[in-house]
Amino acid sequence: MVPSYPRARERRMTPALRTTAPALAAALALVLTGCQGAALSDDDAPATGGPVKIGVVVPLTGPVSQVGTALRNGLELAVRKVNADGGVHGRPVEYVVVDDAGDPANSTQLARRLVRQDKVTMLFGTITGDTAEAVGRVADEAHVPFGTAILGDTEHCFAYQWGFGESTRQMLTPTVPGLVRKHGTKVALVGSDYNYPHFYAGVAGELVKKAGGTVVAEEYSPLGQTDWQPVIGRLKSAAPDTVLSMVVGADAVTFAKQAQQFGLLTPKIGFEGASLDADFQPALGPLVTGRTHTVRWSDRLDDAESLAFVKDYRAAHQWKAPVPEVAGNAYFGVKFLLAAAEKAGSNDPEAVNKSIGGLSYDSPLGKGTHFDAANHVLQADMREVTIGGDGAYTVTRTHPMVTDTTPKKGCS
Amino acid sequence: MDVLLAILGQFGLYGLLTVGIAVIFAATRVVNLAQGDLAMTGAYVAATATAAPFGLRTLLALAAGAPLLLVVERLLLRRPGSDGLAAMLVTWGLGMALRQGAELLFTGTSRTVAVPVEGTLDVLGTPYPTYRLVCALTATAVIALVLLAAHRTDWGLRLRAVADNPAMAALLGTDPRRMRATAFTLGGLLAVLAGALYSPVLAVNPSMGFGLLVPVFFGLLLSRPGALATAAGAALLISTLSVLLRTWLSDTLAEALFYAVVVAIAALRSRPWIGRFSAWFRRTPAPASAA
């Protein structure tokens, strides 16, 4: 699952929102925390350190609000499940949700408040990379563990930050050799022009070489591009067998559509990347039908726990579309964190953080999932899904325990 | 050939929007900042009313757009009409309302419109998607019609008169308020048409129009108020520049250079000697045509 809207685009498309959103977010946050605080603080007479409390920072308004809402929904169901099973340390888990509207300035403020005023045991949430980094810094300062559910690859690693989303390597390692084998050795890379797609292309290039292929073209275009003809022309003249795309947001749709119109994306040519995310399936339909995509979790997994979660999600939110991957990552991520808190035996954030680093946990994300100390990436399974004409992302293959142990700076 | 076709395709989109914004600017001296969002509205009509064939949807977008634009002009723009800045802010607000409205109605997720004419056409040896050609030619034809109307009809004469000197035009019997209303509606409809026509090529989402505003604004900047042909010319120049730069250079470099060149042209144009030269150049044929 790739964040559909990188930061740069948001700034451009809602300049007016920026002035009103913080005020609105603050007001909303007050209401939310006020309500929750009042409702939950009744039994707030901690004998053994009080209940475990999760501070949730998510964008519930603004351009990425849909993804943010899905994450919160997943988290809520996880807490409900854990509480139904007896809670942590025998007490129900509490959580406080605040809305950062996708603005890192808000994220920092709100995370600080959650740590200082609400005295949360752990933080969870954020969608875009810059808000994750903002909360990650607060978490590191305050020595409070912080979990994310989107793309494990943040630019910086923090000692207190743990990513439950797949890393770029985990996404590409099982994918690239298959594409090279099936479609041919010539691979073209294309992306939106900001730092993540460049990073993605770097990893992809390395893996393509390892698989015996060559990168024949590498193109980037600024966000918000409406005419892809020159880029597609250059890609086409390189005659690639596979196109790996990290063109994100609405551009993912424009690019794929125009690439098809100009005859670059034929069914014979391999295609993988952001355009295959479930968010874009309704728009791209036949263009992605029959293609395979690599994800960490899909709502079509048939283990009992995933099935129960999907059923609860559909019932709780009258949800008919596919359940977003980020909701699943959040659900199993929160359960992982709470299991670590239980194992730590106390609510002390530092003890919980230590416990997270050492925990090995069985879930639908994999048997014995655990974090690598060198990069704080969750070592877990990946799935190959095949996209059906009806929009179903059916799991066709499981890649057990796809590891990513490339060290990152700042983890310890 | 590839490049020429790309320029034509780009010109259709930018040309419709720029001529539209120029029509509005001519009559009202207001830069319509909602132009891109009106295009977005047109695209959404094409994306949602899928029960009707594509041509009908385009007409539907225009039919629905006309009364909306008239009402907006009547209710919101008439009062601040004399105050250009206030009117511009009103159009900014209108654009924002359209964007947020679309987000509420259709969510922020992108949609696509099925291409009404499938397949590719061989244009002098270059295969090109048929629909792109159809919509570029349609757009060019509409632009030509508007230019023809501006230079060959009574209405066009009055529009140019109001653009030149609204007070004098009013004294000579042109109702400037009516002129403003029709110009705003026509200019807005050109944007709606652009959005509907180009919707099968683009991703339809609430913020799609916002990105179109910048090149269109540059087009208006480079044109002469009231002279719609210069607006079309400016749109052609901008499309050519953008396509050529992007063909020769990487996209990122091309975009940076594009802005630099446009700003340089705008700055050069304001030099007095260029103004004198072009004025002299323009006036030379005048006596010949009057005779």
Automatic annotation (TrEMBL), chain A:
<dbReference type="Pfam" id="PF13458">
    <property type="entry name" value="Peripla_BP_6"/>
</dbReference>
<dbReference type="InterPro" id="IPR028082">
    <property type="entry name" value="Peripla_BP_I"/>
</dbReference>
<keyword id="KW-0732">Signal</keyword>
<dbReference type="InterPro" id="IPR000709">
    <property type="entry name" value="Leu_Ile_Val-bd"/>
</dbReference>
<keyword id="KW-0813">Transport</keyword>
<keyword id="KW-0029">Amino-acid transport</keyword>
<feature type="domain" description="Leucine-binding protein">
    <location>
        <begin position="51"/>
        <end position="390"/>
    </location>
</feature>
<dbReference type="GO" id="GO:0006865">
    <property type="term" value="P:amino acid transport"/>
</dbReference>
<dbReference type="InterPro" id="IPR028081">
    <property type="entry name" value="Leu-bd"/>
</dbReference>
<feature type="signal peptide">
    <location>
        <begin position="1"/>
        <end position="38"/>
    </location>
</feature>
<protein>
    <submittedName>
        <fullName>ABC-type branched-subunit amino acid transport system substrate-binding protein</fullName>
    </submittedName>
</protein>
<comment type="similarity">
    <text>Belongs to the leucine-binding protein family.</text>
</comment>
Automatic annotation (TrEMBL), chain B:
<dbReference type="InterPro" id="IPR052157">
    <property type="entry name" value="BCAA_transport_permease"/>
</dbReference>
<dbReference type="InterPro" id="IPR001851">
    <property type="entry name" value="ABC_transp_permease"/>
</dbReference>
<dbReference type="GO" id="GO:0022857">
    <property type="term" value="F:transmembrane transporter activity"/>
</dbReference>
<feature type="transmembrane region" description="Helical">
    <location>
        <begin position="256"/>
        <end position="274"/>
    </location>
</feature>
<keyword id="KW-1133">Transmembrane helix</keyword>
<feature type="transmembrane region" description="Helical">
    <location>
        <begin position="181"/>
        <end position="198"/>
    </location>
</feature>
<keyword id="KW-0812">Transmembrane</keyword>
<feature type="transmembrane region" description="Helical">
    <location>
        <begin position="229"/>
        <end position="250"/>
    </location>
</feature>
<keyword id="KW-0472">Membrane</keyword>
<keyword id="KW-1003">Cell membrane</keyword>
<dbReference type="GO" id="GO:0005886">
    <property type="term" value="C:plasma membrane"/>
</dbReference>
<dbReference type="Pfam" id="PF02653">
    <property type="entry name" value="BPD_transp_2"/>
</dbReference>
<keyword id="KW-0029">Amino-acid transport</keyword>
<keyword id="KW-0813">Transport</keyword>
<protein>
    <submittedName>
        <fullName>Branched-chain amino acid transport system permease protein</fullName>
    </submittedName>
</protein>
<feature type="transmembrane region" description="Helical">
    <location>
        <begin position="131"/>
        <end position="150"/>
    </location>
</feature>
<feature type="transmembrane region" description="Helical">
    <location>
        <begin position="12"/>
        <end position="31"/>
    </location>
</feature>
<dbReference type="GO" id="GO:0006865">
    <property type="term" value="P:amino acid transport"/>
</dbReference>
<comment type="similarity">
    <text>Belongs to the binding-protein-dependent transport system permease family. LivHM subfamily.</text>
</comment>
